[in-house]
Write a structure and sequence with these properties.
heterodimer, A: Rossmann fold, 6-stranded parallel β-sheet, 6 helices, 6 strands, globular, B: alpha/beta, Rossmann fold, two-stranded antiparallel ribbon, about 20% strand
Chain lengths: ~210, ~220
């Protein structure tokens, strides 16, 4: 019997209604092979981008992911106070590590068992641990949300795709530096049947997460 | 010394500069290539060939390093992610599948080759890459360090895909980069325009957006 003919494995999740295609591409996902990647939900960024709505949506998404037992990975942008910014891979607006602006917003705070990673630039895989953790944990699917869509979120999805990881970006749990840039990066994501993955609202992800095969 | 062309300090010498020409391959920008066989329009990606030929000529004359990249996969497709293959198959013609003149984006096939107008010459670096970023799973970063290159001038196709990935990655890896707006294009104009707007925002988060004139002036300034 081939794998395709096998009955749904215990813990298998139904496809997420997404565009341009249902996530994941091969229909195979479960809590064991999926991580929720929360990118840059830090106090300073939330304030600067006026991203309160995205935080509210991401909070519901995080709760659903926790109920389903999905691994949660938080990525924070930051650099030391004296570090030069805008050069050598340090983002121009990287918050000072340890400052109030750098902290994760309370609604999306890390819990014991979550992975928390720090990057100086705008790309999650700059954290040396990320790729290894995903590989050794058998994670092949990523649900991605964060700030800003046109910075850390999009660059991280590009890097994930080059590594063969299957990505869904949660549109309403992310916010761009402007609404037009947010929309443009999602349009580029979906070009050619999903150049960098597929896009869904949080409600579609939460609906799928609540219907695990017993 | 600062310059209007480079982000941060200007390069110390011509030897610290590389012109990077991304994926100017038959499959992306010539009649009969992959994009053309998909029924999409290659006029935009073809239109930048003369502008890139001009900066390539200037780079060769100035003696700066030249790097060409080619996107493609091993003939056994061992480096082709399953989702990348599936998405392109559903889109109409899959990477690795047989097209009219050979397999799509496979190393050694006719569509994988760089268009003749921009063919590499002896001494130029040719980087074959399986991903969108020129830095992913290639020797590019090591090669640039070995050559003493600190500053990149990025051209090629497509602006929204491999050019954007390589430009962002150049910043993350500590290189100073400028992309030449008149030497890059996408299949669809809205995605090109949005990419350029995003890369230019706030004076350029990951580097500068300039053009041929800016590049020629910057070369001149290097003496």
């Amino acid at each position: 019997m081939t794998d395709l003919e096998a009955p749904a494995r215990a813990g298998a999740l139904p496809p997420v209604d997404a565009a341009p295609y249902a996530f994941p591409f091969d229909g195979r996902w479960s809590a064991a092979d999926t991580a929720l990647l929360l990118l840059g939900f830090q106090a300073g960024a939330v304030q600067a981008l006026n991203a309160g709505d995205a935080v509210t949506v991401a909070t519901d998404l995080l709760a659903a992911a926790r109920r389903a037992g999905i691994a949660v990975i938080h990525v924070r942008r930051g650099a030391a106070e004296g570090a030069a910014r805008g050069v050598a891979g340090v983002a121009p607006d990287a918050p000072v590590t340890g400052s109030p602006a750098w902290a994760l917003v309370p609604a999306l705070a890390a819990r014991e068992g979550d992975l928390v990673l720090d990057v100086p630039g705008d790309q999650a895989f700059r954290a040396p641990a990320l790729e290894g953790v995903l590989t050794t944990s058998g994670i092949r699917n990523l649900i991605v949300a964060g700030l800003p869509t046109d910075g850390l979120v999009h660059a991280s999805m590009r890097a994930a795709n080059d590594r063969g990881l299957e990505c869904l970006v949660v549109a309403d749990a992310s916010a761009g530096t402007t609404p037009a840039r947010h929309a443009a990066q999602l349009r580029i994501t979906t070009f050619g049947n999903g150049l960098f993955g597929t896009v869904a609202p949080a409600a579609a992800v939460i609906a799928a997460l609540s219907r695990t095969t017993p | 010394m600062t310059s209007p062309f480079w982000p941060g300090a200007a390069p110390k010498s011509r030897g610290a500069v590389a012109l990077v020409v991304i994926d100017m391959q038959v499959d992306f920008c010539a009649p009969g290539g992959w994009i053309d066989q998909l029924g999409e329009d290659v006029s935009a990606t073809r239109a930048v060939i003369p502008a890139i030929a001009r900066v390539l000529g200037a780079a060769r004359e100035a003696g700066i390093h030249v790097v060409h990249t080619r996107e493609g996969h091993q003939p056994d497709l061992s480096d082709l992610p399953a989702n990348k293959q599936w998405r392109t198959r559903v889109h109409g013609l899959g990477i690795g599948d047989a097209g009219r003149d050979g397999r799509i984006l496979v190393r050694g096939e006719p569509g994988f080759e760089i268009v003749p107008e921009l063919a590499p010459v002896a001494g130029e670096l040719v980087i074959d890459k399986p991903g969108k970023s020129g830095f992913h799973a290639t020797t590019l970063e090591d090669d640039l360090h070995r050559l003493g290159v600190t500053h990149l001038v990025i051209t090629g196709v497509t602006s929204d895909c491999c050019v954007q990935s390589t430009f962002r990655d150049a910043f993350e890896r500590g290189f100073a980069a400028a992309v030449l707006e008149d030497c890059t294009a996408a299949v669809e104009l809205p995605n090109h325009a949005a990419t350029i707007e995003i890369l230019k925002a706030d004076g350029g988060r990951w580097g500068r957006v300039s053009d041929t004139r800016g590049f020629l002036a910057a070369l001149e300034a290097l003496g």
